[in-house]
Amino acid sequence: MASSELPLWIPVGPPNGPDWPAITARNARSVQTAVGWIFWDPGAVARYEALGLPDYLAAGPGYQAAGYLAARAAPLAPAGPEAVIAAFGSISPLALRVLFPAVARSGRSFLDFWRARDEAVVAGLRAYAPDIVASLEELGPGLWPVWKPYPGWGGCFSRRTWTCRVRMIRCCRAGMRSTACGSGGVTLTERSSRLLA
């Protein structure tokens, strides 16, 4: 059969089997909700505001966008704005170029925003999901030996990314990781999940 004869759309849901689009949408929603909570939860936003970046970076009230960008960019920030721009294909290159001098003028580091985000995650877990904290604390130490020796973290940015990740707060002593650096973070998370599979 020639490719021109193939249908443009192939049904993948019922009655032929599982409703894969619905399953994918549900799973994507649960992941994106958790990732969004990590960066945009009110505790994280309050911490970003306390660290203070100029308002001209803000997309909404206060300093949310600037703090969000600084926290998310932290793992790749030592490699410079061009590396972060390359990793964050969906975020304005201009905003990221403005972010670097703004963070420098604030007297804070990208790691300060990363730590603020991590502190908010810990506080949020303890406030909203206290029943899982003990399990995460128990699970975490077993994950560190899998994560630490992996040589491929961050490609050409591996030394800088590694340094940032080693310094990060070990949330609930569990070794939890998030997709903190956009495309690069997702890649790192995917690699670690493959190692654990």
Topology:
Blueprint: H1 20-40, H2 42-51, H3 64-73, H4 81-87, H5 93-106, H6 110-128, H7 130-147, H8 158-167, H9 182-196
Helix pairs in contact: 2-3, 2-6, 3-6, 4-5, 6-7
Q: Can you summarize the main beta sheet?
A: none
Rg is 19 Å
The count of β-strands is: 0
Following the backbone from N to C, one meets helices and strands in this order, namely HHHHHHHHH
When the domains are counted, the total is 1
Overall residue-averaged pLDDT value: 70
Structural class: mainly alpha
Task: Give the low-pLDDT segments.
Answer: 153-197
InterPro entries: HTH_67
Verbal overview:
This protein has 197 residues and is mainly α. It has one domain (38-196). It is built from nine helices and no strands. It is globular. Residues 153-197 have low confidence and may be disordered. InterPro entries: HTH_67 (IPR054058). Pfam families: HTH_67 (PF21863).
